[in-house]
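Q: Structure tokens for this one, please.
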Amino acid sequence: MANSKSAANSSVTVRMKVLLVEDDPVQILLLERVLVDSYDLTVCTSVEMAKQACRSGGFDLFLLDVGLPDGNGLDFGRWLRSQDRFLRVPILYLTSRADLEAKKESFILGADDYLTKPVSPQELVLRLEHRARKSLADQVDVDPHFRAGPLLLNLKTQSVQIQHDGHANAAQLNTIEFKLLVQLTKNLGQEQTKQSLLTSVWGADTHFQMGSVDSTVTAIRQKLGPCAWCIQEVDGSAYKFTIVRGASNVAAKK
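A: Here is the predicted structure, written as tokens:
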């Protein structure tokens, strides 16, 4: 059975519910000491136990180890992103695996952060608080549906519909592609540097390079098909989303 702990008194106005999935008793004890005074903490030691906890209640943050006795934390993260109510809940991986492939896979699957053990308790708390506040801000008074030119986006289901020539077709975007598209569309017509996009979508401490922005934009354009022109590159250093055909030509002449 999942173990849930919380402090009687806390200086945090809104106590976030955190699910910690970790099988190392020493790490569990350390993390409980760090988090229990500020968060409603539920501890699970296996993937199956964590799934049962998720079916029983909701959480505001997930803190996951990668290597677990009955499965993989990355696979559990994929399962979380397949559940509508957890689509926008931050996922942070805390693991001894430092290889680039594990980090790359975690971000592709929608992770918000990836910390390699050992990590300082102070840094962990700071990152958790940042993610928690950002998550709350994102969810306050947000209409899950919004239109950007020929695109209809649903923030809840992370789905995109392309409306072209009287027809509506779905674009199958992965989590990172959807995040990047949202970042571009919510700043309609505004140029955003590749560096700012990298920071906004992948995080300020990401290991990825700006080439990841270019390759992700290329993938999005391919999936947008006849509406690929909406995403324009500016001077090789920035992108913008436009609903005005020919905007790229204007930019190119400047």
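A few notes: The chain has two domains: 3-139, 145-253. The CA atoms of residues 112 and 203 lie 7 Å apart.
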